[in-house]
Structures are given as C-alpha cells and as structure tokens.
Amino acid sequence: MTLPRPARFTIRAASALTGINPNTLRAWERRHGLVRPERTPKGYRLYTDEDIERLRAICRAMQQGISVGRVREHLEDAEGPLGAELEPSVPRLSGGPSATRVIEVSLANAGLAGTASIRVPVQGGAATATQTLHDLSVQIEQAALRFDRAAIERAFGRAVGLYSLRQALALTLAPALRRVGERYLEGLGNVAEEHVLAAFARERLIAALAGLRPLHQPPRVLCACVPGEQHEIMLMVLALEVGLEGVSTLYLGADTPIEAIAHTVENSGTQVVALSATLALPQEPILTLQRLVADRRRKPTLMIGGPAAARNRDWLLANGIEPLAEDPLEAGRQVVARVMRD
Question: Which terminal CB of the chain, N or C, has fewer other CB atoms within 10 Å?
C-alpha cells in the first residue's frame, strides 16, 4: 500500500527532530528566509524531510563559525538557489565538493543490534566521528552523575543538531543510560542518577512523538505497554521510528488497560497494534484483546515485542500473534513493513 504523500512535520516535531527552538525556527524563516515550510489552510507550518535536513545543515554551518546572516549565501553556493530541488543527501557546505560523508557505526555500545548510517563532516573521518558521538555520550553520563540537567541538554542538543534525533538517541543517550544503570547495579552509583537520565530521555521522546503524526492520516499504528508494564523507553523509540517513516502512530504509554486498547482500535481504524512487554507477558489479557478486536470488519494485526515477549515467542506464534524484534529500531521496521503489506 502506498502512503498518500510524504510525511510532514509540525513545528513542534521539527524542533524535536533538529534540536532547534521553535522561536528560532520562526525567526530563521521570517528574518533570513533560511527555510520555507508549507502552510496548512489555517496557517500552521509543515516541514518536509528536506526541510529537516536543511535545518541540520544550517546548524552544522553555524557550528563551523558561519554567522546566521551568511548561512543562506553559504548554502546557495553549494546547492544553487534556495528554491532549487535538493539532492537526497544533506545540503553541501562550501569548502569542497561535499562537506559530509556517510559512515556505518555499530550500535553494539548502545545495546542494540546492527549498524546505523550517519553523516559526518569530511574533515573528520570515521574514527573522529565515532569519537565525537562517544564524547557526547560521556558528557551526558557525567552530567547525570552531577545532576546537571543543563549540561545534559547541551550535549544531547549538540548530538541532535550534528547528526539526527535517531542517532542522538541510539549513539549518545542510550549508551549513557546503560552505563549509568550499570553503575547503580554494581553499587557504584545511586538510582536517582538513573532516574534523572531516564526522565530526560522520556521527555525528549514525548516531545518528538507529539505532533509527529502526519496531519493527513488517521493513526495506522497503535503503540502501548501491556497492563502492568512501566518500562516504556524502548516502546517510545519504536513509535518514533515508525513515525519518522511517515506512518501515522498513536502512542498510549505505560500500563495500558486492555479495554482502553480495544476501545482505541475500535474508534481509530488502526491497522497494527504494537505492544511492549518487558518484565512479564500477561497471556489472558492479551487473548482477551484478540477476542475484543476480532469482530472488527478489518481486524488489526497484533504484534508484541520486548524481553518478556521474546521469552514467550512460541506461545505468541501458536496464538497467531507476530513477535517483534527486541531491538526497537528493527521492531519499528517490522511494523512499517506490516503496514505497507496491509
């Protein structure tokens, strides 16, 4: 199935994806003409994927010392007139045929499978780029140990601006969370440090998810934690991955009653229900959910991921439920593929 049109992002979502304050985005458009978002009939801004990449290129240029007043000229030298069609790659900065390159970075240090593609300045090779991401992750970790919220925000904001929200989450924030959690388990730290960083991660993910749903689509995917489940960070990453692929997603959060999930499915036309189970898989409530949605004219696909789901994979398959990969990025790709098939 083909989506009606490419994803469009509200100014709130664009801010979360680029790390740029909404007031700054408005000023860059109004005073400098650096980006030209679409407008809804009511005047609300809608940013395309190309707009998001252009905003990141502007951030990189300014971090290289180029003033906001010169950024427009700087980018036009590399990509032609402002209105010209952009290439799929990030807009080039002056100083060579291309100021960015794509490298593959392992996600193992973040506790995830596979690799991720990221763009880095040409003056920094793969080793330098990896070290930069690692440095930002260490800065976040050390700031959490000092309970320095401002320093956490600065380091994470720089990672988002230089790379992307996906890479900032996977390669800076997730490893920092893992290390802070390991310190607590080994008796070297306090649980409060982990809570500070987890709360920051949750806030950033909520901000990214809010307004991410394409305005022209009803929700195609519903994401929720099973009843009793409080661990939601990985489910939020999954929901974000699905939303960034332009698939309209509704996120219900932790410890969601089965009746609430069924009610939402009934009234939203959801195609896929993606659930997360970290500590335990409540089998009877899940079977109840299956029965509640079975009478719909178009029954949604039920998919469940997380460590508890992985431990009960055979039970899921025996009951016609599709298991999701434990890696939330891979699980997100599974969900998108299912939506496209349906």
Answer: N
Domain 101-209 belongs to what architecture?
Orthogonal Bundle (1.10)
Four-residue CA torsion sign, 75, 46, 44, 161: negative
Q: Which helix (H) or strand (E) holds 256?
A: none
Please, where in the chain does CATH 3.40.50.280 lie?
Answer: 221-341
38-39 vs 45-46, strand pairing mode: antiparallel
**Helix locations, 295-327, DSSP H:** 307-311, 313-318
Choose the CATH number for 11-94 among 1.20.58.100, 3.40.50.720, 1.10.10.60, 1.10.1660.10. Answer: 1.10.1660.10
Q: Which tens digit of pLDDT belongs to each residue from 149-178? A: 999 988 998 888 777 777 788 788 888 888
Give the CA count within 13 Å in the CB-facing half-sphere of 61.
Answer: 27
The dihedral through the CA atoms of 137, 53, 108, 186 has a sign that is: positive
Q: Kindly list the distances between the CA atom of residue 148 and the CA atoms of 94, 141, 177, 303, in Å, as whole numbers in the listed order.
A: 36, 10, 15, 38
pLDDT tens string 222-251: 999 999 998 888 888 889 888 877 788 889
Looking at CATH, the fold of the domain delimited by 221-341 is given as Rossmann fold (3.40.50)
Check residue 213 and give its pLDDT: 57
CA–CA gap between residue 156 and residue 150 (Å, rounded): 10
Q: What is the dihedral of CA 211, 212, 217, 218, to 10 degrees?
A: -70
The pLDDT of residue 104 is 47
* Residue 249, SS3 per DSSP: strand
Mean pLDDT lowest among 74-83, 261-270, 313-322:
74-83
Q: Where are the domain boundaries for CATH 1.10.1660.10 in the chain?
A: 11-94
Q: Is the pLDDT of residue 272 over 80?
A: yes
Structure tokens at 138: 């260490």
Pick 208 or 203 by higher pLDDT.
203
Residues with Cβ within 8 Å of 198's Cβ and at least 6 positions away in sequence, in order, are 177, 233
Tell me the DSSP string of 179-245.
Answer: HHHHHHHTTSS-HHHHHHHHHHHHHHHHHHHTTTS-TTS---EEEEEPTT----HHHHHHHHHHHHT
